[in-house]
Amino acid sequence: MAEERDERKDHLWKVSQETENRMEDIDTPGAPVGLDVGTSKIVAAKRRGKSQEIQTANQLNAFIPVPFSKFTQRTLDQNQVSYFHEGDELVIYGSATEKFANMFNADVRRPMADGVLNPREKMAMPVIEAILQDLVPKANVKGEVLAFSVPAAIEGKEAELTYHEATLRAHFEGMGYKAVAINEGLAVIFSELEDENFTGIGISCGGGMCNATLAYLSIPSIMFSINKGGDFIDRSVGSVVNEHATRVKVTKEEGLDLSRAPRDKFEKALRIYYEDLVETLVSALKKSISRAESLPRSDRPLPIVLAGGTAKPKGFKDLFERALKDTSLPIEISGVRMAKDPLSATARGALIAALYEK
Ligand SMILES: Nc1ncnc2c1ncn2[C@@H]1O[C@H](COP(=O)(O)OP(=O)(O)OP(=O)(O)O)[C@@H](O)[C@H]1O
Ligand SMILES: [Mg+2]
After folding, report:
1. Does position 325 have pLDDT exceeding 80, yes or no?
2. What's the whole-number mean pLDDT along residues 224-231?
3. Ligand 1 atom, smallest distance to 342 CA
4. DSSP assignment, residue 109?
5. CA atoms of 202 and 331, how far apart (whole Å)
6. 190 CA distance to ligand 1 centroid (A)?
7. Could you tell which of 186, 253, 271 is best to mutate to test the pocket of ligand 1, judged by most ligand atoms within 8 Å of the CB?
8. Which one, of 227, 230, 184, lies nearest residue 207 by Cα?
9. Ligand 2 mean position to 206 CA, how many Å?
10. Are 204 and 210 in contact, with CB atoms under 8 Å apart?
11. Ligand at shortest distance from the CA of 273
12. In terms of C-beta density within 10 A (0-12 exposed, 13-18 middle, 19 or more buried), how is residue 351 classed?
């Protein structure tokens, strides 16, 4: 049993590559799928070929409609831009969306907000379905397992999470999959804490929110989320420097370095909202642990793993550690580390959940 698990682990981490290609390119008939349905990105993970290495593919979970014309349509075709025709518009979706938004000096639209499907966005499901069609083929065999990540509910928003999970589940079942939902923080634990027997705290700082889960031996004890993530940073910085959030996002991703002093107003604003996010996250962690009625007793301090795109900039871990130092948590922490690949950790963890479900 232990040998089998070690072998599986070796296979899982042998080689990993990220592509922006369709999942068909990395398709293995009959293999389970792990999916991270995020506010900012959708990431799919699957094991491939004889070596069973994990490969991931991703698409931006965003769209922008442009007026229909035959000419525009031909140009999009020639440039291999993903779109579909809806009424008198062409709806551009996926990874090309941000380029278009910047070109037209507009913001992208999103099927999801704050970690869940946006019930007020009528294009939400058509766009997500189009993105999923590109990323994940229909099940080869009926009942193949697909595990998809879901956030922990924000207090007062439980109903939106139920709608989100049920809508996605119905869609995946329609594609022939046996769909299993996995909490995002737990997916990070599955992906990163196997050597610690899936015991510790997994945190994913994404676009719409941050999710955190504390688990002992893979069993979650605490799950929570805060509705601050990269979008909050982009929106807030955008409003103080008078820029569209989409443009702030692109510039931020080009190389924000939180380990050095900010050099201009833009970097100063980024730091202010990053600090705000980290402080909110750490105080929510303290609050959730403090009010947990009974935590399993652990004889060892717990590790914390940070994942998600918002945790990617250089210096983020230090910022988090500093906030942690200034807070007295009711449990002992052994250390903080980054996920091997912060942007695909959730999808990889979902895949591991799918493999154990098979
Ligand atoms: N290199 C980078 N530097 C800074 N921020 C980045 C970088 N790469 C991605 N991000 C930010 O990370 C966020 C997206 O992260 P991620 O893909 O983990 O989110 P998500 O899973 O789609 O969202 P959520 O989990 O909140 O639903 C965006 O705000 C994006 O701007
Ligand atoms: Mg996420």
Report:
1. yes
2. 97
3. 18
4. B
5. 15
6. 20
7. 253
8. 230
9. 5
10. yes
11. 1
12. buried
Ligand 1 centroid distance, CA of 39 (Å)? 8
Q: Label residues 275-295 b or e (16+ Cβ within 10 Å = b).
A: eebbbbbbebbbebbeeeeee
Q: What percent of the chain has pLDDT over 90?
A: 78
Whole-angstrom distance, CA of residue 12 vs CA of residue 195: 13
| Beta carbon of 256 within 6 Å of any ligand 1 atom | yes
Q: Is the CB of 111 under 6 A from ligand 1?
A: no
**pTM of full prediction above 0.70:** yes
Q: What is the DSSP letter of 186?
A: H
The answer to whether 344 and 45 have CB atoms below 8 angstroms apart is yes
How far from 147 is each of 46, 150, 250, CA to CA, in Å? 11, 10, 30
Q: At CB < 8 A and 24+ separation, what contacts does 157-166 make? A: 157/114, 157/116, 160/116, 160/117, 160/119, 161/116, 163/116, 163/117, 163/119, 164/112, 164/116, 164/117
The model's pLDDT over 112-161, given as tens digits with 9 standing for 90+, comes to: 999 999 989 999 999 999 999 989 988 888 889 999 999 999 988 899 99
Closest listed residue to residue 114, CA positions, set 35, 210, 42, 201: 210
Between 295 and 20, the higher pLDDT residue: 295
